[in-house]
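Mods, move this if it's the wrong board.
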Amino acid sequence: MNPFHQNRLHIARRELFRGASAGIGLPALASLLNPQGVQAEQGAGDVLPGIPRFAPKAKRIIWLFQNGAPTHVDLFDYKPRLKELHGQPLPAGYADGKRFSTMTGQADGKLMLANVEPFRQRGESGAWVSDFLPYTAAIADKLCFVKSMHTEAVNHAPAIQFQLSGSELPGRPTIGAWLTYGLGSETESLPAFVVMTSITKDTSCGQIFYDFYWGSGFLPSKYQGVKFRGTGDPVLYMSNPNGMSRSMKRGWMDDLARINELNLQQYGDPEIATRIAQYEMAFRMQSSVPELTDLSGETQQTLDMYGPGVLEPGTFAHNCLLARRLVERGTRFVQLMHGGWDQHNSLTTELYNQCRDTDQSSAALVRDLEQRGLLEDTLVIWGGEFGRTPFIQGDINNRPRWGRDHHPYAFTVWMAGGGIRPGLSYGASDDLGINAVENRVHVHDLQATLLHQMGIDHEKLTWKFQGRQFRLTDVHGHVVRDILS
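Not the wrong board. Structure tokens:
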């Protein structure tokens, strides 16, 4: 429904009386300023009036979200001084006034822990990447590493929610929902916002994928992410019941849509519009999803590039290939969430498995998009909700149980494509990887930058809720223009 019509239907009594005092003057003035009025309801494929405000560099985003927080000081943020101080107490002043998880409490007296695997400079850019990630290292010149990220929360769920929605509390729209609301959809046969989850097998990480990580919050629920399952049918309840043909289903859907349209016109409830849109989408997905998930047309070279798990539904490799196929078919925002990065006591064991499960397919996705001419206007982002402490969690003398705790004060993400400068390492943490000190990038800055690349001024994309205009970046955020090509 057009937002102006929706606002008229939801007007409060006090606003009605205040507006009525103006008589017919305001409607008459409005008709003079805009004699044609609102011509049509906002459809699924329409852009919100006034959005975008400028030409976008990216048409779509794939977010490779690594739940549990990858350790920046073991993967991307090389700190030689950690090796020098290995086993020694944290120097004074670095963690003063900082809050850590209850597992760490006070950082004073914690012992420093060197990087587990060697770092090397990669490509012409000379970016530092650990031996943990050989495939990512091989494409370093295509990536932009932001090494000065910092955030607010010290625990997983609020930090993930903050990264994706701009608020630590559930109930706010996530970035995929905001983009779908602002830009509509490029396809009528697949959702504009798709989510897939995976987790490394046999991991001890117990992170949960909460539905609010892809929720629409106070936006109408038609903007929330559609989750594709990793087992069985990707989307439940799309098959017709026994005895119902497709033509019979089409007639039933048409009748139901007419009833819902009458209710929508009468009540203006956006959830009625959601039901109409979602019923139609489900009907189209009966044909589009089987075609999407049929990988028989992919070349063996492509399958080999993504890695050995690519044909196994529910793996990160399989989801990466589906992400490429989704954006080819018009999906605007794909959110892949891979759990298992919570290495409190498994840096020397499970971190190897985690990197093995994600490294090859992450790099393959970037290469595949580039080969198909899609990387230029597809923005790929890789990273977690925060980093890991440069000091140890556990016993320094028990190497098989080394770990690192949560660390929100400095971490690294990388981006590729979508108008982001390749071959750049931007920002820096201090000499121990504890604090972001150079060209600091807050989570709200990252969100503002992503919206900017999609052609949206983050201060203009708003929704009125509980008496004020809300936006993804709250009242914060600046576009990080130095990383834009």
